[in-house]
Amino acid sequence: MNYLNLIRYKNLIFLTFLMCLMHYTVASPLLKVFKIESVGPDGAFWLMTIGVVLIAAAGYAINDYFDTKIDALNKPDKVIVGVTISRDATSRLYQILMGAGIACGIATAIWAKSLSIGLIFIIAPGLLWFYSASYKRQFLIGNLIVSLCSALAILLVAEFEASFLTKNYGIFVTQAGVNYNLYLWIGGFALFAFLLTFIREIVKDIEDEYGDRELESRTMPVVWGAKKTKVFLYAVIFITILCALAFTANILFPSAKTFTFLGREMDMLSFRYVLCAVVAPLLVTVILLARAKRISDYTQISKFVKFIMLTGALYSVIFYFQLARVYGLQLFNLFIIK
Length: 338
Description:
Number of strands: 4
Distance between the termini: 47 Å
Radius of gyration: 21 Å
Order of helices and strands: HHHHHHHHHHHHEEHHHEE
Strand content: under 5%
Low-confidence stretches: none
Strand order of the largest sheet: 1-2
Shape: globular
Oligomer: single chain
Number of helices: 15
């Protein structure tokens, strides 16, 4: 169990779930609209997903390896490395997981004939290493790296499908706008993952301010203080809300129920979902941040932001439902919605 906690197995399950959502409720049904069955083999998709999960697990392990002193100050009862698992064992685990993850990624890249997938599986591990060793304790750089890696994990699904489509159909998929739609939709979810991860990482920095300050880290709460950091978070949350609303304003399914908002026709179901599952919880986050004073308050906010990431990602099911209804697709290969 200690090893599972070290690699944050709950986060890994969550990451796997997000990638599956992108593959099965966004990419696959979107291709069916273009009368194309998903050409990316399930074996290749799961090989890529396992590679991503292994690299993420390695990242968590090496992060704890470098953070033992800070964790001893911030959460002494949760320290694993050097207490229940030796530093040498942690280092070996990191090497095994990272090596296996990169191997899975390179194998997927060769299978799909995609240079982009190969580069991501080479660059991301390096970023995670430098994040844990140094960038995490620098102003904003560490937060941006983790957020970028979260977004890349989502965007990999679009690159995966696009690579196999190009491999099988050539320039046709580009001319028909298939790849464009894949990147557009999954890219929207990737941007959402980037922003929510960015918010959550800064909240966690406020939570860990004491240990970071004692070990002379240069995180935003240490440099600016908690109050100014909260103001920055309010701004990022506001930008996230604007992005969610702008994204929703450009969603319009044929023959779907619509309404006019600020002079623009909008998809009613999508707007209601985003308003209730994304915008409202983000506004609640602002209130929670304004009231937060104790470390436990920030811990709860961090968990709540992860919950918003889940509800935002679950819009993919609404997207699938709308496509199935409008284009007569079988929903999860079970039934047709009329």
